[in-house]
Each structure stands twice: as structure tokens, then as C-alpha cells.
Amino acid sequence: MQENFKDVITKLRKEKGLTQLELAKKLNITDKAVSKWERGISYPDISSISLLAKALDTDTSYLIDLCEKESKINPYSKKEDANKLMILIFNAIALAMGISVTVLIILNQIKTKNAILLLGIGLFSLSISLLIKNNKDN
């Protein structure tokens, strides 16, 4: 079984008999940061690696190697997160345009050409969202 950063940090911390808070205090960071490392949500700042290695009686290069290996396993995770966010934003724009036009038509507060323009923006946003999604799937 291949070691991963979060499991190694958790194991070493527990072997030293430290809580997340105690380890965090040694590193002058919050226990929430340690928790994120141990859940695999984030990695320590490069300046914290040597302090972390010292606190856990391990080698700095070992911890750096673990981080590098994990970033090479899934180098597109940040791109995938950005794609998901862009899809969400463009879908929200499309929905907002549709709702806006509907409400303004009900209130008789919009001209036809403006309604068409807003719906066009919504359709354009929806098509961009679909393009991003299709590009991501290929």
C-alpha cells in the first residue's frame, strides 16, 4: 500500500502522543490547518515542512516527497475544481437571466428587445457551461 501525506502525518502525530492542537502550537499555526492536512484538504506551507518534520521526528525530504507524489497523481484537480466553479457560475447566470425576464414580464417592466437580450445572455452562458462540461468529459 502506498503511503499518503495525510495518513503519515496522522500516524506520526499520534505516535508522538500529540493532539492536533498541540502539534499546531509547536508550528505556530491553527489546529484547523493540521486538521485540513490530516483530511487531505490541504498541505502545509513549504516554510512549515521543516518544522513539521522536526516536531514529528521525521525527514523533511520524506514529507516533501509525499506531497510531490500526491500532486503528480492528480495534477488536474485544481483545473477540475475551476471547471466545476465555472459551470456553476454560468448556470447561475443563465438561471438569473431567465428568472429576471419572467419577473419583469409579469410586472410589465421590460421591453421585448431587452427581454430578448437578457435571454440571449442566459442562453450564451448556458452554452458556455455545456462547452466546459463537454470539454471536461473528453
* Overall mean confidence score, pLDDT: 88
Regions with little confidence, pLDDT below 50 for 5+ residues:
none
Q: Please tell me how large the radius of gyration is.
A: 24 Å
Top-tier CATH class of the largest domain: Mainly Alpha
CATH superfamily of the largest domain: lambda repressor-like DNA-binding domains
What share of residues are in beta strands? under 5%
Following the backbone from N to C, one meets helices and strands in this order, namely HHHHHHH
How many strand elements? 0
What gross morphology would you assign?
elongated
Give the CA-CA distance, first to last residue.
30 Å
CATH 2nd-level architecture of the largest domain: Orthogonal Bundle
Helix and strand composition category? mainly alpha
Helix content: over 70%
Profile the largest sheet.
Answer: none
How many structural units, i.e. domains?
A: 2
Look up the CATH topology of the largest domain: 434 Repressor (Amino-terminal Domain)
The count of helical stretches stands at: 7
